[in-house]
Specification:
With 259 residues, the chain is an alpha/beta fold. It is built from ten helices and eight strands. 42% of the residues lie in helices and 15% in strands. Strands 3-8-7-4 form a four-stranded parallel beta sheet. It has a two-stranded antiparallel ribbon with strand order 1-2.
């Protein structure tokens, strides 16, 4: 029995061939209590068995702050933090980041299709991956709301939509948490991929975001959503702006598809 087309390879999804892979991945991604939920999401995701099996999942041994996979980055200290998190920017703005997948070449190509073409099937696919990530890492956090990294109005006009807003809509519906646009982008910063070095990226984010005027409790626990965690400069800048408005009692966590 087939159940649609795989968003990655375009082949038919054969439920009987996918079953054992979904069970194996659910065991890998969850504890016994969370297994049924994770299994149902994996079983329903628009991937064939082979593509589900090939997902570059982040392992269990990670940096406890940014979520980097230790197996592929040999720079995790004995304190549980990678060197970038120990020696980098402040660790107060974000409590933690968590991601599900490593950002490998094939993943870059697929994300590019979503970001610049807006395929709604991919919004559902990525939204499910994010829901799995919440179940894996954040299921007991009790978030007040989800918010997103905003696009500058000029970039939004060029692209036509903010892909992260689409992801937030799918994620919020899946985990029953409201989505609130807490920030506006005040400056159209250069793409981070075109900036050399962490210092340049950090400087470009200074004053990039402003509060959007939402009424929020000062002790809120907020989940900040983006598609990729690279250096974390964008996410930390957003988190700092929110915490400056809501005061330090606000707890900020971030969630991305890729790390």
């Amino acid at each position: 029995m087939t159940s649609g087309m795989c968003v990655r390879c375009g082949g038919c999804i054969v439920a009987s061939l996918k079953e054992s892979v979904a069970r194996e991945k659910a065991r890998q991604l969850s504890d016994q209590a969370g297994y049924p939920i994770t299994y149902r999401m994996l079983k329903g995701i628009m991937l064939c068995g082979a593509c589900l099996d090939a997902l570059p999942l982040i392992g269990h041994d990670i940096c406890q702050r940014c979520g980097r996979d230790r197996e592929f980055q040999d720079n995790i200290s004995h304190e549980g933090l990678c060197r970038d998190c120990i020696h980098g920017e402040d660790g107060q703005s974000l409590v933690a980041n968590r991601s599900l997948l490593r950002y490998e070449k094939g993943e870059r190509d697929l994300l590019g299709l979503f970001k610049y073409r807006g395929d709604e099937r991919l919004a559902s696919y990525y939204g499910t991956l994010l829901a799995i990530t919440v179940q894996r890492y954040y299921k007991s956090r009790g978030f007040t709301c989800i918010t997103t990294v905003p696009l500058h109005p000029q970039r939004l006009r060029e692209r036509g939509f903010n892909q992260v807003d689409l992801l937030a809509r799918h994620l919020g519906a899946a985990i029953k948490i409201p989505v609130k646009p807490l920030l506006l982008r005040a400056r159209d910063t250069p793409k981070l991929s075109k900036q050399k070095g962490r210092a340049a990226r950090h400087e470009s984010m200074h004053g990039a975001f402003v509060w959007n005027g939402q009424d929020m409790p000062s002790a809120a626990k907020i989940l900040l959503l983006d598609d990729i965690y690279t250096t974390g400069s964008t996410l930390r800048s957003c988190a700092r702006t929110i915490r400056e408005h809501l005061r330090p009692s606000c707890e900020m966590y971030s969630l991305t598809i890729y790390r």
